[in-house]
């Protein structure tokens, strides 16, 4: 109605303090705006608005995000919940009349107690989302009963984000056309052919980000053979999450060929029988390498050689086994490295004989400017290194110590850095949230700050301008 916002009927008019009229302004909005607002609500809440009035009855049927999350229920109610969930999803999708949706989220179960049609239901729901020209598809299926993805998935031209997790099987056809796909997550899914991933990547010409997570025992069903060669000319971010092989680690190698890749994340659960090679990556800037158990030093050093041109490196799980003996001599020189983070896994310091096993990385980083250390809440013995890394007197101007607990070894590291860091500008100490143990007594972070700060003031400093900051 011209001249101002429409008013609702007297029956829906509410009274406020002082008998002042309060009008339902949301209901007076144009349909397109009300639908847009409903898209920010969980789908179940959006659907419930149909009971508000005739004007709201069909507003939800054009929302741009659909979200279906099946709750885990008791054994007694599983069958009832299964049927109720399927009926609910079928009902919502059957009444939804938009030409496209931005996001479709489905999280459900596929157990043996489900009837044989559950996988068919899931596949049908995904097909419906694709028919609605979905831009982002996020699927998680838990349980033991695999669900086959529909063939139409591989030619969804509008799809920009595809996240597949859980008990899903991929039968990738020869023709894959995902020209809009930018982000692809494959977490624990089952490849039915060895070259499935290669075909998937070849049909995703503009892919920016790839995450692959492998699990467990059967190499073919869980895509380990498919992982042997990852090639994409457009890929910028690659994340490989490698879980522990069961009942024993699988033997395989992974070759990455991504000339435009800038960020690499590799998480290795068991590196004893696996080899990672990164080639043709001139644009690689940052790498995050996490090793969670029994490392193979040759594999680790070889990987470092492949990425020695990076400017930012995060090492999680570093232990002395990776850098001692002959392996120490094979660590490459990182001429471009500016930022280095070293984190120790729980109990990691117990496998290190001291600071000298980390200095080998520092000695091969002549232009390092920033160093972050996380000792992992565990005590270690201090041993004076044989050499002072050259970057200490040339470029290293900022050091951060995370999870600081005040152990003697922690203090000796700080003392060493302050003494030899002749160009150091800032030493940042981040205390642990846990009670801190110093000289046999428990201190809270507030007391730790004062006590430790007094000790640090007494440490000799190679740089007169260095500031110590507690964060």
Question: How would you characterize the overall build of this protein?
Answer:
The protein has 471 residues and is α/β, with parallel strands linked by helices. Helix content is 22%, strand content 25%. It has helices at 31-38, 43-48, 78-95, 118-131, 196-202, 297-306, 326-330, 356-363, 408-420, 445-457, and strands at 14-15, 21-22, 65-69, 103-110, 136-143, 147-148, 161-166, 168-170, 183-187, 190-191, 209-214, 229-231, 237-242, 252-257, 263-268, 274-279, 286-291, 312-316, 339-343, 370-374, 398-404, 426-431, 436-438, 441-443, 467-470. It has a 15-stranded parallel beta sheet, with helices on one face. The radius of gyration is 28 Å and the shape is elongated. Mean pLDDT is 79; it is low at 1-22, 216-223 and 346-354.
Report a brief summary of the structure.
The protein has 471 residues and is of the alpha/beta class. It has helices at residues 31-38, 43-48, 78-95, 118-131, 196-202, 297-306, 326-330, 356-363, 408-420, 445-457, and strands spanning 14-15, 21-22, 65-69, 103-110, 136-143, 147-148, 161-166, 168-170, 183-187, 190-191, 209-214, 229-231, 237-242, 252-257, 263-268, 274-279, 286-291, 312-316, 339-343, 370-374, 398-404, 426-431, 436-438, 441-443, 467-470. The longest helix is centred in the first third of the chain and has 18 residues, at 78-95.
């Amino acid at each position: 109605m011209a001249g101002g916002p429409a008013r609702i009927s007297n029956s829906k008019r509410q009274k406020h303090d002082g008998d002042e009229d309060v009008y339902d302004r949301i209901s007076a909005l144009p349909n397109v705006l009300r639908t847009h607002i409903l898209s920010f609500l969980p789908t179940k809440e959006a659907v419930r608005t149909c009971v508000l009035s005739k004007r709201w009855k069909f507003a939800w049927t054009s929302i741009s995000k659909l979200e279906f999350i099946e709750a885990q229920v008791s054994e007694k109610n599983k069958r009832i919940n299964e049927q109720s969930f399927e009926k609910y999803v079928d009902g919502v999708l059957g009444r939804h009349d938009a030409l496209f949706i931005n996001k479709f989220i489905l999280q459900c179960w596929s157990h043996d107690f489900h009837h044989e049609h559950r996988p068919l239901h899931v596949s049908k729901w995904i097909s419906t989302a694709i028919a609605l020209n979905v831009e982002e598809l996020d699927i998680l299926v838990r349980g033991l009963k695999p669900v086959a993805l529909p063939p139409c998935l591989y030619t969804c031209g509008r799809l920009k984000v595809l996240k597949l997790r859980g008990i899903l099987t991929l039968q990738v056809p020869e023709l894959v056309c995902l020209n809009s796909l930018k982000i692809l997550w494959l977490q624990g899914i089952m490849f039915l052919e060895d070259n499935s991933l290669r075909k998937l990547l070849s049909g995703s010409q503009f892919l920016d980000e790839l995450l692959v997570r492998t699990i467990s025992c059967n190499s073919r069903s869980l895509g380990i053979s498919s992982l042997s060669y990852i090639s994409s000319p457009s890929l910028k971010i690659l994340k490989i999450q490698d879980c522990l092989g069961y009942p024993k680690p699988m033997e395989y190698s992974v070759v990455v060929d991504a000339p435009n890749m800038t960020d690499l994340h590799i998480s290795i659960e068991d590196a004893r029988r696996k080899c990672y090679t990164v080639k043709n990556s001139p644009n690689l800037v940052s790498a995050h390498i996490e090793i969670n158990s029994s490392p193979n030093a040759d594999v680790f050093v070889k990987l470092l050689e492949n990425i020695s041109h990076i400017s930012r490196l995060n090492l999680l799980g570093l232990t002395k086994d990776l850098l001692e003996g002959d392996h120490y001599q094979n660590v490459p020189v990182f001429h471009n490295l500016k930022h280095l983070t070293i984190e120790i896994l729980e109990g990691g310091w117990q496998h290190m004989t001291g600071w000298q096993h980390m200095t080998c990385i520092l000695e091969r980083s002549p232009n390092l400017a920033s160093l972050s250390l996380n000792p992992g809440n565990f005590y270690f013995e201090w041993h004076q290194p044989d050499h002072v890394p050259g970057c200490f007197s040339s470029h290293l101007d900022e050091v951060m110590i995370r999870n600081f607990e005040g152990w003697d070894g922690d203090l000796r590291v700080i003392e060493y850095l302050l003494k030899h860091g002749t160009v150091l500008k800032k030493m940042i100490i981040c205390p642990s949230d846990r009670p801190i143990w110093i000289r046999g007594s428990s201190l809270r972070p507030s007391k730790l700050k004062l006590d430790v700060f007094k000790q640090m003031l007494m440490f000799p400093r190679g740089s007169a301008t260095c500031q110590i900051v507690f964060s």
